[in-house]
Write a structure and sequence with these properties.
Blueprint: H1 2-18, H2 24-40, H3 54-71, H4 84-97, E1 103-104, E2 117-118, E3 122-125, H5 130-142, H6 146-164, H7 170-185, H8 198-217, H9 220-234, H10 238-256, H11 262-291, H12 298-306, H13 325-342, H14 347-367, H15 374-378, H16 384-398, H17 412-427, H18 430-451, H19 480-487, E4 493-499, E5 521-525, H20 529-538, E6 543-549, E7 556-559
Parallel strand pairs: 4-5, 4-6
Antiparallel strand pairs: 1-3, 2-3, 6-7
Helix pairs in contact: 1-14, 2-7, 2-14, 2-18, 3-6, 3-7, 4-5, 5-6, 6-7, 6-8, 7-17, 8-9, 8-10, 9-11, 10-16, 13-14, 17-18
Length: 561
């Protein structure tokens, strides 16, 4: 156990030295919140009685997450999509809002091909529907897809508190939920993009929170929550969710051998099986609508057609001839990522990068001292099953080629349990007392001084790092300004997009509405005068434009004719 703690500390030191683009504002803010709560929840200070109310314990972190994000809107406005994954999730959400499971293929679909989007046999997203369902819910309830992201994060923070209450005193469980509300809810990309993270974390917290309650009682409510969490994981992070579900189901069934009465166990198993069967039927219906086959996932079809994503080490990199040269460059990016999990010489760097994503996002410099208590944390018998499940899923994530922080989302609750328990031990130590006494005023002064430099129109940081726990992704040099410019011009528009291939950075512009023909702005690939002409004839009443995308330079819009 001590070796594990030492490895975590050494790896954290390497990450802190290697990643120099960390804006200290959010790190200092979280330091302030963490040590303030740590000092508040020491042995000498009893938490208020209201922290024992389970409903308040759920609502307070959830509402805090929403309030923080709404309060930051003047500085961090509602984001627009940039990453290809975001556009894909948004396409699926808008498809659902039209009452469809998939969109018909466009007759000139070659002009509209894009990354993580299927053009044949239907025009659809390649992703599972979980994230899109939250986005669609945000549009239905609050008028914007973004509020679905905020809702998923709020539900995660509340459910995390419920999970923590199975292992920690009520006060510390509430602290964990509030810590997540600040860390995830304030400005992380989980809550400030359409990429995902919070929905998968919510599913993981539901499953992990239901597990110890099922072990004690095998009652219907924990069984329903467990099954619902598995369904949410399957529709957001299916690989990591399947690993987590398999581990927990195995441990549940193993311990159920000695549980009496047997009738309760069978009843709980029947509830889980029934709900998952209904979910499975619904999911395969969506797959059939998209791919034409009930047991062919859109993700699989995308791999067959375009060769990506090559997420796992046993997936072979295929040589494909692409219609569009930028697709070949994207495949080069995928191949380089894939080498980090398949080429022995690159494995050490690949593993360190995987760890660094988790460390930057959840731990950072401020919380690294909790690794000193790793041995005590992992020897904590009450959470032994949780650590086993977290370890197995961690190994699974380490086999994936990118492992961005949302890949870890199914075990985000495990990470927060580790953090909070480490802070409990820190609070009981002499160093914890010193931190609470001296670091709070120092951190407060630093935060006030740093916050004074912010303004709604202030410049973004020079080196934004969306993975870090203390920074937000800056989204300026993309297609949003061009879209706003076109929206202000009367009429409908057709925009041909071409790329400077020497600076292509995988950030795509060719994404469209589910109903392409009735969209005000149609984005198409520049395929040369002859191929462009057929699309211009197809849209005779649209104004035709061309835009050249060059990295680190603002794109310019020019009439094509």
């Amino acid at each position: 156990m001590r070796i594990i703690g030492l490895l975590l500390l050494v790896s954290a030191a390497i990450c802190a030295a290697a990643f120099r683009d960390i804006d200290l504002l959010w790190l200092e803010a979280l330091l302030f919140v963490a040590v303030l709560a740590t000092g508040f929840f020491t042995r000498k200070m009893r938490p208020p009685k209201w922290t024992s109310n389970p409903w308040l314990a759920f609502l307070i972190p959830a509402v805090t997450s929403i309030v923080l994000r709404v309060g930051l809107l003047p500085w961090i406005p509602i984001p627009h999509p940039v990453v290809p994954d975001e556009f894909s999730h948004i396409l699926l959400a808008k498809t659902f809002l039209l009452g469809r499971l998939a969109n018909p293929a466009h007759p000139l679909w070659q002009h509209f091909e894009s990354i993580h989007i299927l053009s044949q046999p239907t025009y659809s997203s390649m992703y599972m529907p979980g994230q899109a369902c939250f986005l669609a819910l945000g549009q239905l309830l609050f008028g914007d897809l973004f509020w679905g992201v905020v809702l998923s994060t709020a539900l995660f923070c509340g459910t995390l508190t419920w999970f923590l209450r199975a292992y920690l005193p009520p006060g510390w469980a509430l602290f964990g939920g509030l810590f997540a509300a600040v860390r995830i809810g304030a400005a992380s990309y989980w809550n400030d993009s359409y990429w995902g993270g919070s929905a998968g974390a919510l599913g993981g917290a539901m499953v992990l929170g239901a597990y110890p309650r099922l072990l004690r009682t095998w009652k219907p409510i924990p069984a329903l929550i467990f099954a619902s969490g598995l369904a949410l994981l399957a529709s957001t992070r299916p690989y990591e969710g399947a690993v987590l579900g398999a581990v927990l189901v195995f441990m549940l069934l193993w311990r159920a051998r000695v549980f009496v009465p047997r009738r309760q166990v069978l009843q709980a198993c029947a509830i889980v099986a029934a709900l998952l069967t209904v979910f499975g039927v619904a999911l395969t219906r969506e797959w059939k609508a998209v791919t034409g086959h009930s047991f062919t996932m859109p993700y699989q079809l995308n791999q067959q057609v375009y060769g990506w994503p090559t997420t796992l080490p046993w997936m072979k990199v295929r040589q494909i001839t692409y219609r569009h040269p930028e697709f070949a460059l994207y495949q080069d990016f995928e191949t380089a990522e894939h080498r980090q999990i398949t080429v022995p010489a690159e494995l050490p760097i690949g593993l360190l990068v995987h760890y660094s994503h988790w460390w930057q996002f959840l731990i950072g410099i401020t919380l690294t001292p909790i690794f000193l208590f790793t041995a005590r944390i992992l020897k904590w018998r009450r959470a032994r099953d949780t650590w086993i499940a977290g370890a197995v899923v961690t190994l699974a994530v380490m086999t994936e080629q990118s492992a961005y922080p949302h890949y870890w989302s199914p075990i985000a609750a495990v990470s927060f349990l580790f953090i909070v328990q480490g802070l409990r031990y820190l609070a009981q130590s002499r160093i914890g007392s010193a931190i609470a006494r001296f670091a709070i005023p120092v951190s407060g002064v630093l935060i006030i001084a740093h916050a004074a430099t912010l303004s709604p129109g202030g410049p973004p940081p020079r080196q934004p790092n969306f993975i870090s726990w203390c920074c937000t992704e800056v989204r300026v040099k993309d297609r949003a300004p061009i879209a706003q410019q076109l929206a202000a011009i009367p009429g409908d528009h057709l925009v041909f997009v071409s790329y400077n291939l020497k600076t292509y950075d995988t950030f795509e512009w060719v994404y469209n509405e589910p109903d392409i023909d009735h969209a005000r702005i149609v984005w198409a690939r520049y395929m040369g005068p002859a191929r462009n002409e057929e699309l211009i004839r197809y849209y005779p009443n649209r104004r035709v434009w061309r835009v050249l995308v060059t990295k680190d330079h603002a794109a310019t819009l020019a009439p094509l004719r």
